[in-house]
Amino acid sequence: MKNLIAALLGVAVLGGCATTDVEPMKSGGDVRGLTEAEQRVWAEADKSDAAMQNAGMTYENAAVTKYLQEVMDRLHPEFRGTIKVRVAKDPQLNAFALPNGSIYFNLGLLARLDNEAELATVLAHEGAHFILKHGFRQRNNVKNSAAASLFVGDTLAMSSISGYSRDLEREADLVGYRRLTKVGYDTRESVKVFRHLAREAEALGDKGDFFYSSHPKLEERIEVYEDLNKSKKPGGSVGKQEYVRQIGPLRLACLESDLSMDRYKSVMLALGDKARLADYPPQARFYLAEAYLRRGDKGDEQHAFDAYHAALKAAPGFAPTYRALGIHHMKKKDYSRAEAYFARYLQLAPNAPDRDYVKNYRTLAKHGGSK
Amino acid sequence: MMQRPGIRSTAVAALLALTLAGCVAPPWQLTDKGGYTAENAAFKVSLPTGWMWAKYLNAGYYVPRAERGQWLAVDRVTLTRDGFGLEDIDLVRFDLKDAFPHLQKPFAGNMLPSEAADLLIADLKKAGLESLTVLGNEPATIAGKPGFKLHVAYKNGRGLSTERLMYGFGHKSGFYVLSYEAPGLYYFPTYKNAFLGVLNSFRLKG
Amino acid sequence: MTIRHVLWYPFLAIFLAGCAQPLPQYRVHHSFIESPQTRAPRKVLVLPVDVVIKEVTAGGVAEEVPDWSRKGSANVLAALTKQLRSGGTNRAKLQLLDTPKLPEADTKAIQQHLALYRRVAATVFSVTYGERAWPQKIYRFDYTLGNGLKSVAGRTGADSAILLMGEDSVSTAGRKLAALFLDSVSYGHSYLTAAIVNLNTGDILWFNYAYQYKSADLREPDDAAKLVAQLFEEYPGVEQYKAGSERYKDLIERYKADGEESRDPGVARK
Known about the structure:
By secondary structure, chain B is of the alpha+beta class. Chain B is built from 3 helices and 13 strands, in the order H-E-E-E-E-E-E-E-E-H-E-E-E-E-H-E.
């Protein structure tokens, strides 16, 4: 009898539940025809935008934002003015789309990609999430699953939330791929995006569900793109030079941000490869040295020392390297060398925010390590 | 993206819940008269008048972790005037091995003050303040020991700015962080001198 | 602190109210008690009302409905305006001023102070309500937003501002049905807080909350009017608060050195 009541109650409660049949958008004008339920989700997304802004989580760089927006507008021209791209001050390799057309591209992912074709892969994919109203469909699924969990228990409800998202990601991959080919990007570059993510996941000890647990495994996604590429002629625009020109300076900001969060593994992954290191500004060698020091494994002190000297050679005007070498020598009790490096740092960066620390260290070094 | 709750609100909320359940009575002490001092095994400080000292947080420091949170054994004095959301003076001695609890990194013997400050910034970011801004980071002397002064700010989703001023140093007895946090609007500047009075009175024992 | 936190504490206070304290539910600033004539608010503005109305599904998923929130905020504002201007019910003798269009700097300052107010209100709940409320903060209520809104006072001629903030949750039909049969599912609630703030000093002169479980819907003008009336029913009530808070002067002793609350209970550990 109890089961019958539960079953009847389940039907009654779920009977009014939200549908998952939604019409994708065809152009920016379609936002005027959103249903009431869709408008609610849109309004929540607007609040998220405001919260991101209020909390200072967006990376304000007009030139970079303009570049990303231009690539997005080429991919989804009928949504120009509706899909808005912003850079998020987050060193993690991720990008996400809100249901109101706001696309957030993390600094970390931007710094890690190699060329414009890879950038376009991510933008096309995130734009597809918006056009296909995935945010709204996901919300419906959460509501239905939460209601179902009253009657069937939480495990089933949770797995249905995860499973549904997997399908949405596949849908966005396919729609995004079509946009890439239409605009003329070389889709063989697309696979590299997931390879970057997979390497990061492995380096950070992640089990493979990198974005969030609902994403399909990265290997599966690589297979999807490779399958799609089989029926396509090779060729298309890669846009490496333009990408490096636009994003280059931002890469140092990202390395700085990674180290400020002790994400030394990410720094080492980004710079550990000689070919990749060559794509970064010369000062990047300093950050590699810092990452070795943070890791502190056997032999890392020497690796750091070597990297600092490589940084000195490649970027002799970059002040932080001198500070770091000063500290290195002071800890080795080589005070005269330490003092010389600190003096050079203060010469190159007399207004550095940490100049008072370095002045103290220089005084300490002058007096042979004691006050 | 939501900011993760701070350690303070998680611990206080948990303890309030336990209080209501009648399990734990968190004691507070009102510093009703001038010249009141707080003392533990590691240090001694003078407390400002009219503040509430949270005695139930004397020896524990909660660190949320992915699988299971952890209580670290510390020496601690933590106080507020109006409630922790408005002023929070927190003086903590960590064991050297627990100096940067969210990074799970120790204070190394030869660590310089600037290096300790950099790791503290990383620790704060790992604790959930990823978008904090560093307003100041400079050397400082605390109870005669060389250390650092770090001033940071962060905002919530409604744009309310909170400022935190931290003085820290490493010593054979532990890693000390003496901090003051309050909303930037009105509260931080108004009660900063109360914190500086506590800081200036701070003395190590032994 | 989020609106979730602001919501939790008064529900807590109500739950504990079985102790039947003589202290009124509202709070009065000590300066208002000391100088009830000179410190009384006279000319007031109403700052942007912030009522959030959510629809809650059977499974507990809460989603704000922007139209409902706009309607709820408008209903609360209309109810307050009517009650203040009707004369008959205006025991408070508050003169409601229209808010003119303010320069951007003032608008920004108001937004920042509203964000601060949320934090202060949450603290007021956690510290001055419930069985373990701090007696010194009840006896001498002195919460403030600081004097950052002085320019608004100068520009408008108002000496005070009313801040209204609240939340309402409306259950879907499915949730209401589930609530009939399942203990784990609750109905909606309506909750409103009000503060009267001196614009020159930022002092929260008067603070109160109103709460209804299940029976109010702020989308309905009559329900909004009832809740607003409940909120200001005892305003200003300075003498009653003074009398009710007197016994807290003695309770302060419990927290002083060697007092009952101050004795070392050991360490709270997980």
